[in-house]
Amino acid sequence: MALLPWIIVGAVVVVIVFVVALWAMNYRKVPPSQVLVISGRTSVVTDADGRRRKV
Fold first, then answer.
1. Nearest 5°: phi and psi at 17?
2. Predicted confidence pLDDT, tens digits, the chain (55 residues)
3. Structurally, how many domains does the chain consist of?
4. Could you tell me the pTM of the whole model?
5. H/E/C letters for each residue in 1-55?
6. Which structural domain, as residue segments, surrounds residue 44?
């Protein structure tokens, strides 16, 4: 019975780390003079200089 609180604390820590990682992976910074519009599935976009990136 003494391990049950530690298991619960460990599970809560894992869930919090997972949520923070998911948020950080999806966070995008945009300058104030621009707007970020995300719609639909992930796609590959080619920039003007030829670099390809996922959006």
1. -60, -40
2. 689 999 999 999 999 999 999 999 888 899 999 998 887 777 788 888 888 888 7
3. 1
4. 0.55
5. CCCHHHHHHHHHHHHHHHHHHHHHHHCCCCCCCCCCCCCCCCCEEECCCCCEEEC
6. 4-54
